[in-house]
Amino acid sequence: MKIFYSPASPYVRKCMVVALELGVAGRIEKLAAAANPVNRDQTVVASNPLGKVPTFLTEGGEALYDSRVICEYLDSEADGRMFPREGRARWHALTQQALGDGLLDAALLARYETAMRPAELRWDAWMKGQMDKIASSLARIEQLAGGLGERVDIGTITFGCALGYLDFRFPDLDWRAGHPQTAKWFEAFNQRASMQATLPHA
User: Fold this and answer.
1) Its pTM surpasses 0.90
2) Which of 38, 45, 66, 185 would you call most buried, defined as having the most Cβ atoms within 10 angstroms of its Cβ?
3) Is pLDDT at 35 greater than 90 in this prediction?
4) Which one, of 39, 27, 37, 28, lies nearest residue 4 by Cα?
5) At the top level of its lineage, which domain of life is listed (predicted)?
6) In the chain, what are the domain boundaries?
7) Nearest to 182 by CA among 79, 76, 103, 66
């Protein structure tokens, strides 16, 4: 198995945390990628027309994307611990994954607006809209955090990667100040070996 990889991508991180938790990370070869929304990496495009990371190649050479599909594939190849199979637990985990991914989507758009768009073309209202999505997502995670406990599934992993990305790319946001339950949960969750092994870097 292979994965087109960027050490700064929170979505790649999500996949690798799942792989580590499932004990299959050693079977995955990391392929360097320079995915970019403007100057697209044609090596990635050859396997994924969207040109995004993560893009995953199965042992049979089939390309899978995006992180949601890859994580579920890895879970199916292992012992199926990351995706509850039925009932409320499944829908809670999937909805929490969607919330964490949505937070990440907004954070990435905000990051692109400041890091990639020329200053004279930046749109303040757009930036505010993305930051508002981050704020409302954090408020919802704060409501949930007290009940997350020691759960390790696709929902909590996505939350962990999303919060880690905020620390990485938005260090001045100080999200912990207004979200004490989330901060307490993340402090413990972030100490997992899978999270420490995948800390993002440029």
Assistant:
1) yes
2) 185
3) no
4) 28
5) Bacteria
6) 2-78, 87-196
7) 103
pLDDT at 116 over 90: no
| CATH T-level assignment (fold) for domain 87-196 | Glutathione S-transferase Yfyf (Class Pi); Chain A, domain 2 (1.20.1050)
CA 51 to chain centroid, in Å, comes to: 17
Residue 70 Cα distances to 14, 24, 110, 156, angstroms: 10, 13, 25, 16
Tell whether omega for the bond before 101 is within 30 degrees of 0, i.e. cis: no
Question: Mean of the per-residue pLDDT values for the chain?
Answer: 95
For the domain made up of 2-78, give the CATH fold: Glutaredoxin (3.40.30)
Q: Measured between alpha carbons, how far is 28 from 26 in angstroms, rounded to an integer?
A: 6
